[in-house]
Design goal:
Largest sheet: 9 strands, mixed
CATH architecture of the largest domain: 3-Layer(aba) Sandwich
CATH topology of the largest domain: D-Maltodextrin-Binding Protein, domain 2
CATH class of the largest domain: Alpha Beta
Shape: globular
Radius of gyration: 23 Å
Oligomer: single chain
Strand content: 25-35%
Number of strands: 14
Structural class: alpha/beta
Helix content: 40-55%
Low-confidence stretches: none
Length: about 300
């Protein structure tokens, strides 16, 4: 198998998979739809396996296609990085790289992203500031902020990353002592441990119908940081609304239980925010890219 010859076909496949259609991929790549189809057919023939399921309306991935897309996405990142490096061959990022972010993203997103970034740019000196309150970039001498929630008006540049959804959780011991929580009527009677941004009257979404509703919850304790709210919850003191990205590992380990699964709390957009008006430095562009990839895998 000629691996070099497969490279453009793999990139074409990745674009089709990401765009969800041959037509959109052709427009994005500036080639004809028939050329896209020929590239995909040649790739599938070379591999001896189907990568895409095609209908008149949409394109979907086979099991092998899903696996290959993950690798191709990494390859796209590396190619992008390679050409950025060629364009900035005389520049090797070094020195202080300061970033602020909410506690909810620290373990699963920020630390892994910094680890990857330092493997590529070892002369950077990261300064990490975890704070559930947004910090102004200029006032605090920051290079980047990972912002969760709607953006305030400012002159900063914001790049979309993904979104967080809050889900209701409690410990198995709390539920054992206080009874199962299966409905919204049961939910509002329990002690709710809140964070700084959560209010007694909170908006929830019914997953089955996608309808939104305001619930007045029984505020028991207020915490100014998410880690404090989680620690109180883990000590069986009440229920909490926790971002899914933080809750999932705790649910998987058995420390928390996802309750009232047909309801979810607010969904928040996530952005990378920087103050550069023109071309941003290569390490900031790469950091944003890594953060986006980590979000996609969650």
């Amino acid at each position: 198998m000629n691996n070099i010859k497969l490279l453009p076909r793999l990139m074409t496949f990745a674009t089709v998979a990401q765009k969800g259609s041959f037509t959109d991929a052709a427009v994005h790549l500036g080639v004809s739809k028939s050329s896209i189809s020929q590239q995909i057919s040649a790739l599938e023939s070379e591999l001896g396996a189907r990568l895409l399921n095609r209908t008149t309306r949409e394109v979907s991935l086979t099991a092998l296609g899903f696996k290959l897309l993950d690798r191709c996405t990494m390859l796209q990142d590396q190619l992008s990085l390679l050409f950025n490096d060629l364009n900035d061959a005389t520049i090797s990022p070094s020195g202080r790289f300061s970033i602020t972010f909410p506690h909810s993203l620290q373990s699963e997103i920020i630390i892994p992203a910094i680890k990857q970034l330092l493997s590529e740019y070892p002369n950077l000196e990261p300064v990490l500031i975890a704070d559930d309150k947004p910090l102004d970039l200029v006032e605090n001498g920051l290079d980047v902020a990972i912002h969760v929630g709607e953006l305030p008006d400012s002159g900063y540049r914001a790049l979309p990353v993904g979104s967080l959804v809050e889900i209701f959780c409690a410990t198995p011991l709390y539920l054992s002592k206080n009874g199962s929580i299966l409905s919204k009527d049961e939910l509002v009677t329990h002690n709710w441990i809140t964070t700084a941004w959560q209010k007694a009257k909170t908006s929830v979404t019914h997953i089955d119908s996608n309808e939104r509703e305001d619930l007045k919850l029984n505020v028991f304790s207020k915490c100014n940081t998410l880690p404090a709210a989680i620690e109180m919850t883990l000590n069986h003191l009440g229920i909490a609304l926790i971002p899914d990205i933080v809750a999932r590992p705790l649910i998987k380990s058995g420390q928390l239980t996802h309750i009232v699964k047909n309801l979810q709390g607010p969904q928040w957009p996530v952005y990378t925010v920087h103050a550069y008006q023109n071309e941003k430095p290569i390490h900031i562009a790469r950091f944003h890219q890594i953060v986006c990839r980590l979000f996609e895998k969650m």
